[in-house]
Amino acid sequence: MPSVHLADRGVVRVSGDDAKTFLDNLVTCDLDRVSAHIARLGALLTPQGKILFDFLVFQAPPEIGGGYYLDVLRVFAPDLAKRLGFYKLRAKVTVEDLSDSLAVVAGWDAPRPDEDVGFVAEDPRLPALGWRAIVAAQDAAEFAKDPADTYHAHRIALGVPEGGRDFLFGDAFPHEALMDQLQGVDFDKGCYVGQEVVSRMQHRGTARTRIVPAVYEGGFAADVGVEVTAGGKALGKTGTGAEGKGLLMIRLDRAEDALKAGETIRAGGIPVRLLKPSWIGFAVPGDEVPPPSP
């Protein structure tokens, strides 16, 4: 059973009498769909609808103090805690960066561990990602059976992007980062920061730029942040890659036009073939569906 300690992840706790209402008014996911056994992908956006932070939300049971724990990229945990503090006003909430005392671990291809290890849930983005847990920092080593690169290769092969790796914070809309496909935006909840822009994109279908998975010719993936082109024209940028597969943030309409014109899409100069995993609901240029795993 592969399991990893994701040392690049941190934890921000939001607790207090008003914690649920406070967060629900700010983030893209519906806190009614988060429980002690069910996590949720969410994000805090700018008023213009762009992602400032993305995270997985866990809820602690009342018998151990309750509150919500946000699994976030560790380098951004202090900034997230500070930003949430700006919104506190008179709300009865406490926001704490607990990244030194808590750790994030993940595993797949086996049942999730018992809940006595910490907060454990199926990864809410995609079942194939496996399970995710927040544990005491001193216990993280027992889950570090494999290097973190193993997890990222697994994630990339499934086509699942992560903020700070596959898109820049403050630069991408939730639709561009596939949050609408990965249960990261609840369109039937009430207002939250940036909600009007996100709802308009959903109802008008105006997301022309998307992250899509791809296979590199030759088995080598390009570096992060290099240009994706076709026929000498820019389509977008590369995200992370591993084992000959990668994620690309591209303009779908331009990619479609290039393929119709017989052009080859290249990422960092390497020819790539776009893929459409079964969980993606929008059309991908070329409409290539990978075969099921053996």
TrEMBL record:
InterPro entries: CAF17_C, TrmE/GcvT-like, YgfZ/GCV_T_CS, YgfZ/GcvT. The keyword Methyltransferase does not apply. Keywords: Transit peptide. Residues 208-280 form the CAF17 C-terminal domain. GO terms for biological process: iron-sulfur cluster assembly. This is Folate-binding protein. It comes from Microvirga ossetica.
